[in-house]
Amino acid sequence: MVQNIERLSQTSPFPESAPTANPVFYRTYSRRGEKAEGRRETWQEVCDRTIRGITKLGNLSPAEAELLSRMQHEMKSLPSGRWLWVGGTEWAARQENFSGAYNCTSTNVIDWRAFGLMMDLAMMGCGTGAVLEPRYINQLPAIRNRLNVTLEGEIGAAPIAQRSETTDVQVDGNTVRITVGDSRQGWVSSYQTLLELSTAPRFTGDVTVIVDLSNVRPAGERLKGFGGVANPIKLPGLYERCANLLNQALGRQLTSVEACLLIDEAAACVVAGNIRRSAGMRQGASEDAAFAAAKDNLWQQDENGNWRIDPQRDALRMANHTRVFHRKPTLAETTEAVRKQFYSGEGAIQWAGEAIARANCDLLSTPELKTAFLAAYQNGEGEAFLRSLQPEMDEQELHHRLGRYGLNPCGEIIGADFHCNLAEIHLNQLDPHNFREQEEAFTAGALSVAALLNHRFVEPRYRYSRELDPIVGVSFTGLFDFFVNAFGVEWLRWWAEGRPNTMKGLEFREKERQYLTFWKEVVHRVVWDYCDRHGLKRPNRCTTVQPAGTKSLLTNASPGWHPPKAQRFIRRITFRKNDAVALACMDYGYNIVPSQSDKDENGHLLNDPFDPRCTEWLVEIPVEVPWANLPGADEIEIEKFSALAQFDFYMQVQKYYTAHNTSATIELNEDEIEPLARAIYEAIAHDEGYMSAALLARFNAPFPRLPFEKINRETFVELQRGVRERQKTSDFYAALARYDSGELIEAGPAGCDSDKCMMPEQTQ
């Protein structure tokens, strides 16, 4: 047995085996300190701030607060990425900002307010899910007014003292003047107002819309209340692009794709402004052919081999698209979906029946009841089945229960009009034979998510959903590492064989189940006990597995349930050119190269990071998984694990740990399309718990400067030697303090914390 309990270094609070921790922490989670102007928080200060905030919000006992503090300092249990960023701040304590503490949200698109809410959420850093099936978007009014937008007033033209934070709207006949307010709410209000004008019955003809941007602060000025700097680079074009989309639908209701574009244009505006990194999920009906093809051929290649993106659909890159099936898909449909994902990365399907069954497990409390419900739902009788279980249920609750298949951007949370808080257990930091330690870590995670159930949202739809269906999500990362530590290299060999049902394989499978079941039981017991003691309604589902991208880098955990990319690899992390953290990385000995987007006039990648043409940097960090040097571990080619082996392990987690959904990206080769499709089809057909997973074609072609590049042991040793030779200091924080000056674009973590989601855009 190999214990992976890492010793903390003298100059860093992070495990020595996590070389990516310092760059990622100071780039993503460290705010400007409140005690020293211009200085970023240390890990100790982030822990103090976030524990203080969660203790106050959750009214935790001293013993509970001590446990959370100890588990967080030891990096065994961490709160959500959003809470690491905003927890304990004055901003997060204000009711209008409660949403900013959540990675995961979903909204049913039934009115113009839903669009405004999602822009507001994106500006606070939340991941936004949007359900766009006809049952929802058909509630939107038909477009009746043509909008002619004129921009007036340069950004920042108004004197600072005269700028208004509130958007002002004045109507004179068929002319409307929108003076955009200099605030988050101001931007959102102006966007939502424009959409509402397209259907307002008061107008008698085309509507002239004058958008005055003079109150909006220019790029580079500090933002109020949340830190960071303004950059309204895409804001002026937002109104014109949205008006063009609305005008194309004159005389009818919006299609699902048009609704997508309206949401994503706002998200693109937010991302371009460096205010928050955004992530989205858009769910459309399985029979909606236009939705299914919305991102087909988004990238196009000209006769010279140069790639360009369709400018009319560029904003669709802001979100993942999933097709919702309210009946079990056929084998042919499943195979088509797997094939489409292999070739395009799009086309994921969701079996709504499983989502709704899991989200109603308080009523479907036995396996027999769940199976009977799924059969009824398949036959279009799901509503009657739920009604029979609780005849006194009102219509609003019944519709909410049947609508609990909304997904957050990476698909690990299910619900309707929800906010869900996440915590993450770093299993790679735990001893597989110390069950007390495991119980403490999952207890801390459960308490940290339960505390946010005290939030009472301003928006009625979110408040109703929280009161009726409170949900939390305790996730984990480093599961693969944990099981290597528990079972040794023999477990890796079983994976390489495809996880067959041999006697040893059945033994491994049973031990996996025991761990997963134990952790799930701890989480639900602790959350329910907390809710009972604090007079809160119990969530009926409390466990999930998120993609676990960025936070996993703090301890060098294999993300979520997934295997690592390899035993050893180069990890490349993106920064702005001359970013203080990147400069500190350079002093620490890490290599820096220009990003893939920086090329010379002949299209060749730049090599000098200080070339004037260079705009983005990649910090190259050699990484080795902590168990890489186990005897025999090097013989296992992790990157060749079959799609069916990955699927089998994923389903273990889905069956025995996860109450929501398990976020998954299963990598496959072309010859695995049909076998994997059959496995998915059968899992749905036999009610085994499958709901939705992302699929990704294995990328075996050589391509420069990818986020991950596999290397062998010799190369790793050589790169490590180079780091030591270049290193000017072993104290990363001291190096950072040398470069930290006035400007820090404080954006916080992305709404979707996933390497899988962000990898195509090279933003990790």
List keywords for this structure.
764 residues; alpha/beta; Anaerobic Ribonucleotide-triphosphate Reductase Large Chain; b-12 dependent (class ii) ribonucleotide reductase, Chain A, Domain 2; b-12 dependent (class ii) ribonucleotide reductase, chain A, domain 3; eight-stranded mixed beta sheet; four-stranded mixed beta sheet; 26 helices; 22 strands; 38% helix; 14% strand; globular; disordered N terminus; disordered C terminus
Describe the structure.
The protein is α/β, with parallel strands linked by helices and 764 residues long. Among the domains are: 24-101 and 420-554, Anaerobic Ribonucleotide-triphosphate Reductase Large Chain, CATH 3.20.70; 104-291, 2-Layer Sandwich (b-12 dependent (class ii) ribonucleotide reductase, Chain A, Domain 2); 568-637 and 702-761, b-12 dependent (class ii) ribonucleotide reductase, chain A, domain 3 (Alpha-Beta Complex), CATH 3.90.1390. Helices cover 38% and strands 14% of the residues. It is built from 26 helices and 22 strands. Strands 1, 2, 3, 8, 11, 12, 15 and 16 form an 8-stranded mixed sheet that branches. Helix 11 (331-344) links the parallel strand 11 (319-325) and strand 12 (348-351). The longest helix has 32 residues, at 503-534. It is globular, with a radius of gyration of 25 Å. The two termini are 33 Å apart.
